[in-house]
Amino acid sequence: ALKVAAISLQRRYRATVLSKQQREKFLNLCRAVIVIQSTIRGLLVRRYVKQMHLAAAAIQATFRMHITYTRYRTMKSACVVIQHHYRAYQTAKQTRDLYLKQRQSA
């Protein structure tokens, strides 16, 4: 009876030790999985943030280009108007000078 009790205690002890070892292995595996997941998630987030940064830079560049082109068109239009007025002034002056010459010689 004593031998059976000792064997029973040894079995229970070995089962408890084995159970603790298996639990520790499982917890280590869980920790490793968590580290891998956090590393991958961090990598993906950094990649996403980089893409967003590049997209924002592209949008800003396009917007700046639009503003610059709009200013250019406005200035070009203003130049054309100024040239038109100047040429009209020159033509009017030449016409007036010609008229005054003809009037003087007559």
UniProtKB/TrEMBL annotation:
Keywords: Repeat. Pfam families: IQ (PF00612). It comes from the Eukaryota. Gene3D superfamilies: 1.20.5.190. This is Myosin motor domain-containing protein. It comes from Micrurus lemniscatus lemniscatus. The lineage of its organism: Eukaryota, Metazoa, Chordata, Craniata, Vertebrata.
